[in-house]
Each structure stands twice: as C-alpha cells, then as structure tokens.
Amino acid sequence: MDERINYGKVAPEGIRALSGLEAYVRSSGLEPGLLDLVKTRASQLNGCAYCIDMHTKDARAGGETEQRLYGLSAWRETPFYTDRERAALAWTEAVTLISHGPIPDALYQEARRHLSEKELVDLTLALIAINAWNRLSISFRTVPGTYRSTPRRKEVPTGV
User: Fold this and answer.
1) CATH number reported for the structural domain that contains residue 72 in this entry
2) Looking at residue 158, what is its pLDDT?
C-alpha cells in the first residue's frame, strides 16, 4: 500500500489545529492508559490500521498488558477492564458509531456514574480527535508500522 498524500506536509496549519485539540486532551487529566484504550477501540471500529498500530504501541509503552490489548475488541466479554473503562469504551463505541442512532440515555447515565461532566466532555473531545485522525489516515493511506512510540512513565493497569 502506498501513501496517497502526506497530509501533514500539504496542510500543516490544519494538522497543527488538530494537534492542538490532541494537546488539550492529553493535559485534561484523563488517564493516559484510558485514552490509549479508547483511541485503540475507536480505531478498531473505523478500521484504521495506522492508528491501531500507533495506539497499541503507545499503550504498551505506558505499561498496558498484551492481554487487555488483545481483548479490547471483545471488551464486553472479558473481565479485564474496570467499570470506569467499560463506561468509557461503551461511550467510545456510541460516539464513533453515531450514525447508527442517538446515544441512549441509559448509556449516558452509566458514563456519568463513572466520569464527571468535565471528564465526559474531555473524553468526547478525545473521540472527536481520534475519529478525525482515523479519517485522515484511512483516506490518504498512512502506512502502518512506521510509527515509533516514545517511552513514558509506566502505569499499572487497573482491573487486571
């Protein structure tokens, strides 16, 4: 597969704007490990190979376990995730697949049981960002396997 367009070189101002949203999300206070999980799950749903590669590498660099990464596509059927992570993953699927219908009140209420108002807005902004990155990478065929993660402080995954 060949890359169609290097969108970062063609539209650097647009990429800087999207990167600004990404920077906000990273500084929002949401746990980096939670962000890795929801970014990976959204990328799975969208079929973005580049972003799946990127976010699983980042998750591993943050201390995420292989078991939780492998189980992510079937998170409802595994005991590997906390209630907070499950609420965030359900919200991720609803926001990413918004064309399937409105987000049910029950799903919103469950998300609010585990996330503050600000956390839920920040999570939704993170999902807006990853869905935008997915669409760029899929449309212009960003080649997977080229991303290199940088080490970060190791986290201890919860719920394992």
Assistant:
1) 1.20.1290.10
2) 46
